[in-house]
Design a protein that fits this description.
This protein is α/β, with parallel strands linked by helices and 269 residues long. It contains 13 helices and 9 strands. The protein has a 6-stranded mixed β-sheet, with helices on both faces. A 3-stranded parallel β-sheet has the order 4-6-8. The termini are far apart. The mean pLDDT is 96.
Length: 269
């Protein structure tokens, strides 16, 4: 049933029921952080799902009680040192967001535990999001020393308003699932041990719905995100420009050393 996805190395797949496909970020020993292969696969998989006649609804989740800790630090360091790597990952980051938005199948994301980085980017542009009460949701970019690119500029202001978006993205403040639901960042908050069950229930309803009506409703609503495309493109370009600068090197070093970063006190911008 998942043979069409057999070539994927990092992402895992499961069909809990007919018509439902689970896409699983699976590197539980490192909180499902994505290496170069995983990042590429997470960008590409939505095209395969789009063409999959057996899938009517998709559930994105992480393995082992966490969504994802973001990008593997080794990949991030390579991006700071190598232009070709930086250019490749920039294209993947763009494709990831647009491919989820343009996938005709309805998508549901389960946010459990740590939810950061590329995994969070894919989850937050899914159609429906279910977060655990104690899930730790954090954009993470300014803490690393780069602009909040990925997905944030395209969707956070639309979901929670500009004032809240600036607060959480510029300060890199974390949210738990309850607060995320309260301010409208996620669709549903569930008890931590009920997140998967709740998300699967939503998928079940979507899979049983009128497929064309559901898909056309998604397509229409996602035009709000498409209109924000130029804002997203600019934010992503600024993020990746930052990967060539000094702030990300200090941010990366501080994360590895498990200390507070000591960023420069002035900016050339």
């Amino acid at each position: 049933m998942t043979q069409r996805y057999a070539h994927y190395e990092v992402l895992k797949f499961n069909r809990p029921e007919n018509g439902i496909l689970e896409v699983i970020l699976s590197a539980p020993k490192k909180l499902n952080a994505l290496d170069a292969t995983g990042h590429r696969e997470l960008a590409e998989v939505w095209r395969d799902i789009d063409r999959d006649p057996e899938t009517r609804a998709v559930l994105l989740r992480g393995d082992g009680g966490n969504l994802s800790a973001g990008g593997d630090l080794g990949m991030v360091e390579e991006m700071t040192n190598d232009f070709e790597t930086r250019a490749r990952v920039w294209k993947e980051a763009s494709d990831l967001v647009y491919n989820v938005i343009n996938c005709v199948k309805p998508t549901v994301a389960a946010l459990e535990g740590v939810s950061v980085g590329a995994g969070l980017a894919a989850a937050m542009v899914c159609d429906i999001t279910v977060a655990g009460r104690t899930a730790r949701i954090i954009d993470g970019h300014t803490r690393l020393g780069v602009a909040a690119g990925d997905h944030a500029a395209i969707v956070w202001p639309l979901l929670i308003g500009m004032a809240k978006a600036k607060y959480y993205l510029m300060l890199c403040e974390p949210l738990d699932g309850e607060e995320a639901e309260r301010i409208g960042l996620v669709s549903v908050c569930a008890d931590d041990d009920k997140v998967h069950e709740t998300a699967l229930s939503v998928c079940r309803k979507l899979a049983r719905g009128a497929p064309t009506a559901v898909r056309w409703t998604k397509h229409s609503l996602n035009n709000w995100l498409r209109m924000a495309g130029p804002t997203f493109d600019a934010s992503l370009a600024l993020e990746f420009m930052g990967f060539s600068g000094p702030e990300v090197k200090e941010g990366l070093s501080s994360i590895r050393d498990k200390r507070k970063p000591d960023f420069p006190k002035s900016s050339p911008f």
